[in-house]
Amino acid sequence: MNASNHSLRNNSRPAVFILLLAIAVGPAAGAQTASSTLPDTPQAQPANPVGAEPRSDVTLRGVPKDILKGQAAIWTSPAHVRDRDLAYLVPIGLAATLAVTTDHQVMSSAKLDNPSLNSQASTASNGLLGGFVAAPVIIYGLGAIHHDDHATETGILAGEAMVDSLVVDEVLKVITMRERPTLDNAKGKFFQSSVGVDSSFPSTHSMIGWASAGVIASEYNGPLTQIAAYGLATGLSVSRVLARQHFPSDVVVGSAVGWLVGRYVVHKHHKHPGTE
Length: 276
Fold this sequence. Notes:
Helix content is 63%, strand content 0%. It starts with a helix and ends in an 8-residue tail after the last helix. The longest helix is centred in the middle third of the chain and has 32 residues, at 115-146. The chain is mainly alpha-helical. It contains nine helices and no strands. It is globular and about 55 Å long.
């Protein structure tokens, strides 16, 4: 293994640099089977150990099949919830419930009714999203240049996670048909046919951003990378509320589902001997 490959595998700083670079340019412009279930995602395994053979199941050619299998696992995951999954499902559920009960009050605040703030927050959120979309492409490209299988794998998995999360997001939007905060005095009514496909629930920006962040932070799991990835993803989610594009519950659910999808994609490709 050459020196550049060794460096990328063992040091989180390149991943932090790549992620921050992507964020900066944004505003300017053996695996589990198909029965893998989403609730198992918090047990994501470590990235490739040094000297490990590249996993043949992570290829660009295999992405379409992996996405189809992933969608089957994601939508059937509620039937496979285990007791141990409650450790994170319950807090997520409580946070979403609390957010829903305070949605109207938060979005009706005079402090958020500020066109300048809303515009700046919207620009920031779009830039952050662009960064999270660009980061996997940059990571993949650098991996291809330096013949680093770990980096190219990270780029592929992050892309797969974002596509998976986007499909889930669009289905949920069609089902929920929630009004945006700018409509009807921010009542946030669900099942309004007039909304069409522009449902506020969940937040697309949050879901895609957290899916990308979840993969990057899992593959390069050093503290600096995790702080950068999750910190910027949090900023993206908060900015959607400040822009008055989404209610708090929209971004809470979008962020949680995006993170779960990202971790699931990593986990299903990281089954090592001795793991279940």
